[in-house]
Write a structure and sequence with these properties.
The protein is of the alpha+beta class and about 80 residues long. It has three helices and four strands, in the order E-H-E-E-H-E-H. It has a single domain (about 5-75), classed as HPr-like (Histidine-containing Protein, Chain: A, 2-Layer Sandwich).
Length: about 80
């Protein structure tokens, strides 16, 4: 059986959003990553998310569980 992966594009507007996002991510069970192409970083690390926000054109959260409602505030519309 193939493992399902859930991905949502993020819109993190500033430091406060990044702090809140990493706080929520750190409470999630299992691995939560942010991705851009082949680059993958931990979504539970403030420095990783800050680096991604500064360096990448787009940031997507990826989980092996449906994390929509956990990160709804930060999902790009």
């Amino acid at each position: 059986m193939e493992k399902t992966t859930y991905r949502y594009p993020l819109d993190l507007k500033g430091i406060q959003d990044i702090l809140e996002f990493t706080h929520v991510a750190s409470k999630c069970p299992g691995e939560v990553t942010i991705v851009n192409g082949h680059h993958r970083l931990s979504a539970k690390s403030f420095l990783s998310v800050m680096l991604a926000k500064i360096s990448w054109d787009s940031v997507t959260v990826e989980c092996d569980f449906d994390c929509y409602f956990e990160f709804e505030k930060f999902i790009a519309r």
